Amino acid sequence: MSPIPRGVFAPVATTFDDQDELDLAFFKSNLSFYATSQLDGVVLLGSNGEFALLDRTEKLRLIEAGVEALGGRKIVMAGTGVESTKGTIDLTKEAAALGIDYALIVTPHYYKPAYDAKAVLAHYQAVADASPIPILIYIMTAYTGVDLPSAVIAELSCHPNIAGVKDSAGNAPKVGEMIAQSHDDFAVLAGSASFLYPALCLGAKGGIVALGNVAPGLCAEIKNCFERGDHSAARELQMRALAPNAAVTSRYGIPGLKVALDYVGLKGGRPRPPLQPLGDDDANKVRTILDGAAIGPVQ
Fold first, then answer.
1. CATH class, range 7-228
2. Which among 65, 159, 75, 146 has a CA at the least distance from the CA of 106?
3. Beta-carbon count within 10 A of 12 CB
């Protein structure tokens, strides 16, 4: 079986310049900070990395820059899922050649009425068979409209090159089902800091959490307290994470995350159109929420 990914990972933002081109200098600067943080690793080209708005060449340039900036100091995952099985295999192989440790494969979704369990199983099994590195399943129903039943996850967990799943829904019964039904050598990862501690209590191996971009220490310490058995401290930190996590996910999304990055001293900048930057009032609300959670400059 593939090695199990454990710990807290940040799905890092992609940075753009004033001409809407990749700003790799700022991107590498952010990654250099994460390399010295308490995070166990990062995810390049996740939803917070605006992967759906990037072309193939840009994706590969970002992976190359991210791997170089981290220099082997952290685990590196990268989103390599596209709509077709062949395209996913091709991009995964190219990303693996650039030095990533795991490929995160989002569910195909454009023809979702036709994507029954048989199609999903065939897709992920084919990608896992062909991939030179372990893969993880990525369920992001809020964006794709596709969910995968626990039974499908359990079957996929038996593949020796499928190392885990990131599920962003926060459905506690389903998290428990996936953990209970899946192979022992399979990592269920919380897809949000909003339920990191509850997921750990159920047996999750960690989380891929947007809040880790701006509060890596807070997110990592939830896991650390849990592992030490200090559940009171873990619960307190979990409660502290709720409002800022919502601000950079469901409430203000990627534009909010980019405001938050700038506020803590990293590089956020503008999202890529058609996403629009926050207005001044909403940007100030994000900053106020961060202040309320005692999340300030990271450098």
1. alpha beta
2. 146
3. 26
Nearest CA to 59 out of 101, 88, 34 is that of: 88
What spatial distance separates the first Cα and last Cα of the chain, rounded to whole Å? 39
Where are the chain's structural domains? 7-228
> Catalytic: 166?
yes
Q: Which long-range contacts (CB under 8 A, 24 or more apart) does 18-21 make?
A: 20/270, 20/272, 20/273
Q: Which of 189, 170, 209, 197 is nearest to 12 (CA)?
A: 209
> Is residue 21 within 8 Å of 58, Cβ to Cβ?
no
28, 112, 118, 166: the catalytic one is 166
Could you tell me if 42 and 70 are in contact, meaning their C-beta atoms sit under 8 angstroms apart?
yes
Any idea which residue has 């590196």 for tokens? 76
Q: How many CA atoms lie within 13 A of 186 on its CB side?
A: 24
Half-sphere exposure of 216 (CA within 13 A, CB side): 25
Give the closest residue to 139 by CA, choosing from 212, 47, 210, 75: 47
- Kindly report whether the peptide bond that precedes residue 274 is cis, defined as omega within 30 degrees of 0: yes
Model confidence, pTM: 0.96
Query: Alpha-carbon Rg of the chain, whole angstroms?
Result: 18
pLDDT tens across the length of the chain (299 residues): 668 999 999 999 999 999 999 999 999 999 999 999 999 999 999 999 999 999 999 999 999 999 999 999 999 999 999 999 999 999 999 999 999 999 999 999 999 999 999 999 999 999 999 999 999 999 999 999 999 999 999 999 999 999 999 999 889 999 999 999 999 999 999 999 999 999 999 999 999 999 999 999 999 999 999 999 999 999 999 999 999 999 999 999 999 999 999 999 999 999 999 999 999 999 999 999 999 999 999 85
